[in-house]
Structure prediction request, 310 residues.
Amino acid sequence: SEADLEHLFDRTIADDARIEPRDWMPDGYRKTLIRQVAQHAHSEIIGMQPEGNWLTRAPSLRRKAILMAKVQDEAGHGLYLYSAAETLGADRADLTVKLIEGKQKYSSIFNYPTLTYADVGTIGWLVDGAAICNQVPLCRSSFGPYARAMIRVCKEESFHQRQGYELLATMMRGTDEQRAMVQESVNRWWWPALMMFGPPDDKSPNTEQSMQWKIKRHTNDELRQRFVDMSMPQAKALGVTFPDPDLAWNEERGSYDFGEPDWNEFTEVITGNGAANAERIANRRAAHEDGVWVREAAMAFAARNEETNR
Ligand code: 3HC
Prediction:
């Protein structure tokens, strides 16, 4: 009976075991997972744009090759996550239309422009660093396909973070202008990186239920704190500072105290009014519309193949 199925679902979650696509699940569980996994996938795909901006202007072949590999990885993460969403009954073409029509979100961080080359390093170091803080716990998410996708994503994300840090460390050993470029970039990306973790827990409508269903294993504020604690020693080693006068070690908490992000800015950005939202969506719409002929050709080829194989 439905009651037995619900009981089995609850027991599976309680035992920290995995829910698989063919298992019975509450409609709300399916719905919130499609929401989160689709938006995660959209984030990866849109995230290719800020970095892509520097592909043709990387200062060396090595830097260009690394950046090309990273941007291609993000595309792969997106496809992985759209596939995970499809195991829940979503359709990736439909999800793409929802993204383009502004009916689904993508990570706020990608609505900030990449103004200097140091941004390529800062994005790797801080944005992928924040993504790692957020994605490592998702490897233990209760929905099997999502958790398994995260294991591969996290391995590649670690490369992204290391190459970004190494790029900045190289610039910090360069000229005064390069050091100033790094610090200016860090000043622009620090607060938006903190906002990636979502609104404060007491303003997060999804966290409580997502924690109960073990979709999320930590709250937004817990992961944000973990990211600040992880980043401070790295900033010291790099020789940069973060633009937050309230950042200070708190001995009894064993963590850093830090200031409050600008949540009005966050709300503006996630409702589509950020610096680059319109541009990012226009680019995604153009790619989708210019790609109709590719999808039609692939379908025609598949149909003809089916004919000949019949
Ligand atoms: N950007 C855009 N929207 C955000 C957001 C952000 N940084 N943080 C929260 N929101 C949205 C939520 O989606 C939700 O709106 P919705 O109900 O329409 O979906 C609303 O704000 C309230 O937030 P909640 O905290 O209640 O929502 P969640 O419980 O879903 O928590 C989250 C938000 C922490 C982002 C969670 O969805 C999550 O962990 N998602 C998976 C991780 C992810 O998306 N990461 C993207 C990082 S970028 C990336 O990975 C690319 C990297 O390789 C560079």
Notes: The chain has a mean pLDDT of 97. The radius of gyration is 21 Å.
